[in-house]
Amino acid sequence: MWSALSIVYVIWGSTYLAIRVMVEDVPPLLGAGLRFVVAGVAMLAFLAARGRDVRVSRRGLLAAGAVGVLLLAGGNGLVTVAEQDVPSGLAALLVASVPLWVVLLRSTVGGERVARGTLAGLAVGFCGLAVLLLPGSRPADATVGGVLLVLVAAASWASGSFLSPRLSMPSDPLVSTAWQMVVGGAVLLAGAIAAGEPGDLHLANASAKSLLAFAYLIVAGSWVAFTAYAWLLQNVPISKVATYAYVNPLVAVVLGWALLSEQLSVGTLAGAGLIVASVAAIVTRESAHPPPEPEPVPVPASEATTAEDERCIKQPAVVDSVS
Length: 323
Hints:
By secondary structure, the chain is mostly helical. The protein has helices at about 1-20, 30-50, 60-80, 90-95, 100-110, 115-135, 145-165, 175-195, 210-235, 240, 245-260, 265-290, 305-310, and strands spanning about 170, 310-315.
């Protein structure tokens, strides 16, 4: 258990640093799109070789695709774009607000009654975000536009997480995740082509560290850490698995400071403390008192063929972290 948790803690925390290094020479949308398309296609090929049925219904593909677009294109893709102007540690701290946005969506869009303790944690977390947005708190090289873009990415990731259990996702979580990566990555590649990014990529001039960072994101971030995370979900209580949500930003901040000399101001540390504390409180409370399950989405009989090909169930998003 602790080996798998350590992998998720360190690798997913380090992907923010890898993204920051990758975008020095690799266009962000192109790099993020290729990362997920390659990872998704390779995962489908691996599962098929192991005898798993990777085919999904049209309904399941639409559901997985919608969640993949929100999580990977809107979430990870926007973070990758923003890290051209936002230090990796600050980006990780802002992304740590995802549980706060999920609670907000549950209480507003979902109409769920949220406990007072959770609402108190929510208020503390958004106070931490406000501190990070103050001019004197964020690093000098972090632009307002970049910071806001990361917050939009966090809200997009939260929307995908909120929507996922309310859709009829493919029954096999690994197959579902692979299709999320393929669709989300394809959308990012379409955006890269529209932005003319392929013409900006010059492999001959790209530094070795940027290319290594790109490879690291695929191999370590999307394959190794995901495998550990999938195992944890099946074998370890969710209260322990969820601790990655507030450990990853701490790892990212330390790595950014140690390897990229990113600034750590008093305001940054204060905002980080408020966000991490609020997320820890919310995750702990939610693990002890889980919210009611959303109603399953019925599958019309006209869309069903065989039990194996069309079987869909409620399933939480099982994908890479925003990084």
